[in-house]
Amino acid sequence: MALSQAAALAEKALGHKDNSITEQDIANPARDRAKYADPSGETMKALVWTGKNTVEIQEVPKPRVVEDRDVILKVTGSTLCGSDLHLLHGSIVEMQKGDILGHEFCGTVESMGDSVKNLSKGDRVVASFQIACGDCYYCKKKWSSQCERTNSNTLEHGMYGGNTAGMFGYSHFTGGFAGGQAEYVRVPLGDVNLLKLPDNVPDEKGLYLSDVLATSWHCVIDTGVQKGDVVAVWGAGPIGQMVASFCFINGAARVIVIDSNWRLDYIKEKYPKVETLNFNSLPKGESVTSQLKKMVDGRGPDIALECVAGEYPKGWAHYFELMSGAETDTSEIINEMITSVRNFGRCGVTGVYAGFTNHFNIGSLMERGVRLIGNGQAPVHLYWEKLLKMIESGEIEPLDMVSHRIALEDLDKVYYKFDKREDGLQKIFVETKFSGPPAKGTPSLTKY
Predict the structure, then answer these.
(1) Cα–Cα distance between 141 and 315 in angstroms, integer?
(2) Is 117 left (phi over 0), alpha (psi -120 to 50) or beta?
(3) Measured distance CA(382)–CA(329) in Å, rounded
(4) Exposed end of the chain (fewer CB within 10 Å): N or C?
(5) 3 state SS of 215
(6) How far is CA 15 from CA 97, 154, 164, 363, in A?
(7) Where does 282-394 have alpha helices with state H?
(8) Neighbouring residues of 353: CB distance < 8 A, sequence distance ≥ 6
(9) 3-class secondary structure, 117
(10) Chain centre distance of CA 11
């Protein structure tokens, strides 16, 4: 918490860069009701961050159209992502009390600015989790997550050597935009960042084009999974699950998923071809690396994919270094990946890493010719039209990962259960007062 607040103060002292074409730091319309709240005075329910490890459902002002490319959505579906837990824990800096969270959502168009010409009131749409301008160097390549004109945070630019795009509900480090775990949401540059959903794709499937499907697909494609590859996947959450599925779609011969809880059984039930490795049940004297070598011809997998994140230490050294601020991320999983793959193997990192790490095994990386690839925040715009067609054809099934449907009013309670891996929560669908009844084959409502 202290680090996050120090970062916010540093950003305030430094001031934002001047690159953004959309207003920054509107993480809750209540921050300036005269400028950002709907003039009707209508309020809405929203999930807000209230401090490290605490979130609440609160009544806040409904957002208004602020800029002429804005779209206001009635949210009909949102979800909870492992990345949201990094915000809950304060691992991502520059969170402020009252920030509305949620970067994955779909809805119907309620109103829009005068410059939005490609949408109509009532259109069903899904939003990309990143906010892209559509015109800059990266956007012209569809690398929407790296848009140059929607995030003017100076601290991020200094730490990373460049800015990412702005992102919904993901701290002021990425622009300070209000998220979609709410009944309404403002979508800046809505003419670019919304994809229409066809009638044959229900919200319970289309929602996940916003992040998890594109992120999983990008992880597989960007790291270069090819026909015949043996792939090891760290993490059995929703990203790890869909990565495993997409590896097979792209020709992998074998997929081995590494984790330590019930999620391994969940994935195995959905995809019987998947092999699993529980790092809490290793034989005496064995490690994840030694087991993977034994499982794959003594050499190890061709590819390792990181679908966890850097905030979860496994040993005491990294635990204390994280607690003391000596590092922001542990290198343990990255090191396991590097030592586990065969010589000249490839390692892709999709789990969130926020800053710096210690004890990185650069020697193995260099001497054995291992390729370490930061997949980056997935460029949703590059993939979402293709993935939508794959949903329509039945080639991919988002519902494989959806375990629960909950009401927005219960989302704060579900955050804590999701954090503790309780109740078999894999991926959820969050309904609002604007949602329709559950689509065929989707979970019924669970109340908390």
Answers:
(1) 41
(2) alpha
(3) 28
(4) N
(5) helix
(6) 20, 7, 17, 39
(7) 288-295, 316-324, 332-340, 362-367, 380-393
(8) 309, 310, 328, 329
(9) coil
(10) 24
pLDDT in tens, 176-211: 999 999 999 999 999 999 999 999 999 999 999 999
Token pair recorded at residue 250 = 């792209």
The Cα 308–Cα 85 span in angstroms is 11
314, 313, 306, 322: which is closest to 374 by C-alpha?
306
Q: Under 8 Å CB-to-CB from 111, ≥6 apart: which residues?
A: 65, 71, 72, 121
Residue ranges of the chain whose pLDDT lies below 50: none
Helices then strands, each counted (H, E), the chain:
16, 17
Cβ burial, residue 212 (10 Å; 0-12/13-18/19+): buried
Q: Are 106 and 432 in contact (CB under 8 A)?
A: no
> How far is the C-alpha of 213 from the C-alpha of 337, rounded, in Å?
23
Show contacts of 114-117: CB within 8 Å, 24+ apart: 114/68, 115/68, 115/69, 115/191, 116/68, 116/69, 116/70, 116/71, 116/190, 116/191, 117/191
- Biggest alpha carbon–alpha carbon distance for the chain: 67
- Following CA atoms 386, 387, 390, 395 in sequence, which dihedral angle do they give, to the nearest 10 degrees? 130
Given the structure tokens 């990192």, which residue do they identify?
Answer: 349
Q: What is the pLDDT of residue 353?
A: 85
Angle (CA) 200 76 63, round 5°:
140
Q: How far apart are CA 135 and CA 307, in angstroms?
A: 31
Q: Are 343 and 368 in contact (CB under 8 A)?
A: yes
Q: Are 74 and 94 in contact (CB under 8 A)?
A: no
What backbone torsions phi and psi does residue 359 show, to the nearest 5 degrees?
A: 60, 35
- Report the pLDDT value the prediction gives residue 4, as an integer from 0 to 100: 62
**How far is it, in rounded angstroms, from Cα 174 to Cα 42?**
28
Rg of the Cα atoms in the chain: 21
- Nearest to 92, CA basis, from 310, 324, 376, 377: 310
C-alpha–C-alpha distance, residues 226 and 252, integer Å: 6
- Integer distance in angstroms from the first to the last C-alpha of the chain? 28
CA distance 113 to 233: 43
In b/e form, how buried is each residue of 143-182, taking b as 16+ CB within 10 angstroms?
A: bbbbbbbbbbbbbbbebeeebbbbbbbbbbbbbbbbbbbb
As given in the structure block, the two tokens for residue 166 are 């702005």
Cα–Cα dist 20/149, whole Å: 4
